[in-house]
Amino acid sequence: METLKHLVFRYTAFVWGLFKPLGSWAVFAIAGIDSAFFGLPLDPVVASYVYADNSRFFLYAVMAAAGSAVGCIILYVIGYKGGEVLLAKRMSAAKFNRIRSSFDRHEFWALMFPAMMPPPFPFKVFVLSAAVFEMNFGHFLLAIFVGRFIRFIVLSLLVLQFGPQVAALASEMVLSHWLVVLIMISSLGLLGGVLWYRSRRNKEGRASNEIGA
After folding, report:
1. 89 FRET partner, CA 20 to 30 A, in 2, 126, 158, 181?
2. 58 Cβ partners below 8 Å, 6+ apart?
3. Do the beta carbons of residue 191 and residue 27 sit within 8 Å?
4. Which pLDDT score is estimated for 14?
5. How many helices (H) and strands (E) are present in the chain, helices listed first?
């Protein structure tokens, strides 16, 4: 564990020194490249920024989520043009049918929940699937942004509490307990949505009472 912490802190110092001049736009750019082309160590980057600049953790979560959504546009175009043949080459028929069924029932959730998962979860497969099955483009971007934002805000809060090494630990947990991680992240997202909805209803209720008075 001490070795892991040492490596993470060294990586934190390296990333912060390299990208500090770009500010939050570096997080956006790295997230876009990670989603569009090849995997980059996005979680450690976000963790490094949050650890080095605690007060802007919310901004970094937003920029990472937005960059991921924008980067996925390229995969959307590839999947949309390639069609089902492109996707069928990358998975078994049984898996293909399961994913198509999930998108047919609830396309937004079928993409949002995978977007919450940290690496090495195969998120790009679901992005391509969304395009192949012609998911509404606006819903596509929103599902990725919401899922990624939940993922990065949870990561940021963990970094504030435990330090940047949680990024590496999160990947190890996904490898061994991906279902548990998905349930935990989904529960946190659902709880946040319920609290936001209740707060909004209370504000609307107070506004109605004031108008009535």
Report:
1. 181
2. 153, 156
3. no
4. 63
5. 8, 0
pLDDT score recorded for residue 175: 44
Q: Rounded distance, CA 136 to CA 164, Å?
A: 36
How far is CA 166 from each of CA 22, 85, 143, rounded to the nearest angstrom? 24, 39, 25
pTM of the model: 0.69
Confidence (pLDDT) at 11: 58
Helical segments of 56-165, H only: 57-88, 93-116, 123-132, 137-162
Distance CA 211, CA 213 (A): 5
Q: What is the DSSP letter of 117?
A: P
d(CA 79, CA 131): 5
Residue 77 and residue 131 in contact, taking contact as beta carbons nearer than 8 Å: yes
The CA radius of gyration of the chain, in Å to the nearest whole number, is 19
Phi-psi region of 163 (alpha: psi -120 to 50; beta: other; left: phi over 0): left
Are the C-beta atoms of 131 and 115 separated by less than 8 Å? Answer: no
The structure tokens 């330090």 sit at 163
Residue type, 177: H
pLDDT along the chain (213 residues), means of 10: 57 61 81 78 82 88 95 91 77 81 86 84 87 91 94 88 67 46 52 59 63 56
Q: Say which DSSP state 56 is in.
A: G
In one letter, which amino acid is 186?
S
